[in-house]
Amino acid sequence: MDKFLNLMYDFFAFAFPGACILGSLLLVEFGSLSLFERIPGAFTQGLWHCFLFFSFSGYVIGYVLNPLARVLLLRKLGLNIYKGFLIGRDSGKNDKANIEPGSLKNNRYLIMKKYLNSNDLSSKFVLIREYSPRNAQYIEFWDMHVSMSLNLAIASLVFLMVFLYNKSMSGICDELELVIPVTVILLVVFFTFIWLAVKYSVWWVSDVITTYKLVNNKRFKRKMKSSE
Description:
flat
């Protein structure tokens, strides 16, 4: 079961988004032919050969880009774009609890900023995986969605750049009725994936913090019983 979950994580978090990025890059046109068409015989070896090529190459691309995406797209861009939403969700709680709006205790944005910019979550997750493996699976599930959303955001941005480059080579002004709506749609898709990454990261961080507290309480109770 663990092997299946790890395989699912690698596929959806890295291989699938990486394959989308690779596919977009292969559509870059040089002259009248795309890069895909200029590689003789590379994709004529059968469906299984293509699947292995895109899976392996996509995994490498997704794995390499994911740490960069977490820093630039999640911490730098995503949290700042959706800062108002994260704080807005907590404003009602702050008023009811008479807690200062900038307080870390009840401010979702500050909590996310704190934990996403430190290694504290990793050390907490090690303990969770040791003492609560079932909860660790749910946490990895949210982490998989964060990685997949960020890498798919990159894929949509790469596809947009390739699309605009190809159209600029063939005369972008002559096809504005196609370029403008496609650009708008891809930008909406990009920011939607960024939003999904922020949402899943909120759930991910929340589950880590909550489960860590539960695990610590259980360990404390065991120590108390053993000392009696």
